[in-house]
Structure of C4-dicarboxylate-binding periplasmic protein DctP:
Amino acid sequence: SAVAAAALSFTVSAGAVAAACDDGEIVIKFSHVTNTDKHPKGIAASLLGQRVNDEMNGTACMEVFPNSTLYNDNQVLEAMLQGDVQLAAPSLSKFEQFTKQFRIFDLPFMFNDIAAVDAFQSSETGQAMKESMVRRGLLGLAFWHNGMKQMSANVPLESPSDANGLKFRVQNSDVLKAQMAALGGSPQPMAFSEVYGALQTGVVDGQENTWSNIYGKKFFEVQDGVTETNHGIIDYLLVTNVDWWEGLDEGVRTQLGTIIEEVSVARNAESTAVNASNKQAILDAGGVVRELTAEQREEWVTVMKPVWEQFKGDVGQENIDAAQAINA
Ligand code: LMR
């Protein structure tokens, strides 16, 4: 029965937690919202957990809670500030209440690809962004990549005018709301865990996301199709509570920091390939993918890119220029 299955899965995960953590170990809870397999974040989080549990056994243990099983993306940062969770990797769009600097990552057509995002983040400006919320209690440890966003809806999307009048789920970000408004759509902010149900029941008509999220949460099954716009990005900040991090013994912090750095470099190098395989998985499952000609894509650029003007003051013209120089 479903009840027995639920009980069993609870027992199994509780067992896994007990196995990972022994008395006296520092418990590191990592809460995230995506699936675990075939997902850039899911894979990275699992690998981080494995390495900590192997290499820091006796000192620290990590419990990874995927699929919003511990916290939703709109709750996790508050839980972190309360000390209830030590690691999370929300998308950069989810830090709206803490900093406006990350708005550059939400601006449509700002970065040509994830390599450009990586180069921007590696710059002095990008690295400083990890510490931009320290006075609010949050410290960024690493940027983690997902990939380029695509648009999907319950009607075919080819020209931007096809989006006119549709309700689009967005992450809770002012830039993304403005972007959907520029399309003549109605932006509906909601947590990631609610998107599938909202698409299925028609609470919203469409959404934007990466191939790995569209496949991983089966959005394509309740949409007419996915249009390959590559209009924006989803990228993450692996984040922790400043006080917790500063409170670790130096040796522990250094070892954990080194593992995080190695996992981040290794998995970031694979994120584009992981998304490509998710696109293929959608096609293999019979999902519809619409590719745009260069001329068609230019129409989306024309409609969406004026949004930059509204947020120039928040993100800084010099940062926009730096991102554009990287694209070139
Ligand atoms: C979303 O809310 O659509 C994404 O940020 C989810 C995620 O963590 O990839």
Observations:
- The mean pLDDT is 94.
